[in-house]
Amino acid sequence: MPRKRKAASKEKRPDIREVATAAGVSLATVSRVLNNVSTVDEKLRKRVLAVTEKLRYVPNRQASSLVSGRSRLFGVIISDITNPFFPELIQGFEARAVEIGYEALIGSTNYDPKSMELCVERMLSRNVDGVAVMTFGIETPLLERFAAQRIPMVFIDEAPARQLTAAIKVDYDHGIQQAIQHLAVLGHRRIGFISGPKDLRSAQSRLEAFKKSMGALGIKLSAEMVVEGNYTIESGQIGFQAFQRLTTPPSAIICSNDMTAIGVMHAAFDAELSIPRDLSVIGFDDISLSRHLLPPLTTVRMSCNEIGSRAVDSLHALVEDRSRAAINSALLTSLVVRQRTDIRQGALADLPGKKAKRI
Question: Comparing C-alpha atoms, which of 167, 250, 156 is closest to residue 210?
Fold first, then answer.
């Protein structure tokens, strides 16, 4: 009769007690190190971390959350996962969250109220410690549900006037002013702008920055030079076509985001216009795709990775000190000049013998 084989023994997973014993410290010290408590002595911290690495100890987040009353989970709500801006933001958010001992719960609304409601339900059911509302717009009654549970929140641009909130205020003026100055130096005066949806704060802020900067340079702006879009490639194509129907189309177009700018470039190609020779185009966001276009896109940089990282730091600060006042963090924008802008045709007509230099 064949002998029964012994079941293969599974490698025992080390627990927090073994880590404490090996490091020669208390369980409380190990817990404080793993939860990134700042008051732990640096030598003890390094000793504990060295032991956790040697033993390949992986903290049981569920168990620790039961003890601490915290889920060690931060939620992040975005508008559209297919827009490259948001995956880059999530990358920065998750990387920073993991760095400080948290995990990320991601929800995408696709600008749909029902999906938005489901995102909020998921966050509440998972008992998140904080939520980053990175949608540029969300229904107020839904936010009140987080506020009722005293869950810290961080927003882009503007936060409600209450405790446990933070805002990452984007300085749209700086980057857009640089963009218009750059085009003005190249001889452009008819500069079109394709905005985002007028009911979103971010779109309003970018359009206001555009109007303000045009006025500061004394460049006349007519109503026909502004077209409303929705941050998509398709809206860039539609915006371009609207401008082309004008008696005198713009010689340069600034777009509210890079996806819109890509739409403009596609439509210009279909219309057999050369960019930047016939039309200069500037985007906004500086998503990673923009630098890989041929030629690369000139754009206003707003670091989505940094927005994600700052959102985590703001939430963590509010969780650690729930009595602190609202937090505001400024994020600067700046122009990144690549190869989608050029000197306006005819701008150097009064300089015979001078050849336009492509920028």
Answer: 250
Buried-exposed string 302-314: b where 16+ CB fall within 10 A, e elsewhere: bbbbbbbbbbbbb
Residue 253 pairs in a beta bridge with 192, 281
Domains and CATH numbers, the chain: 16-45+52-59 (no CATH), 69-171+304-333 (3.40.50.2300), 172-301 (3.40.50.2300)
- Residue 316, strand partner residues: none
Encode the chain (359 residues) as per-residue pLDDT tens digits: 555 554 444 556 777 788 888 888 887 888 788 777 767 888 888 888 888 888 887 766 555 554 455 678 999 999 888 888 999 999 999 999 999 889 999 998 887 888 888 889 999 999 999 999 987 656 567 788 888 889 999 998 887 778 889 999 999 999 999 999 999 999 999 999 999 998 888 899 999 999 999 999 999 899 999 999 999 999 999 999 999 999 999 999 999 999 999 999 999 999 999 888 899 999 999 999 898 888 899 999 999 999 999 999 999 999 988 777 677 888 999 999 986 665 666 554 433 444 444 44
Output phi, psi for 194, to 5 deg: -105, 110
Tokens of 323: 């009595």
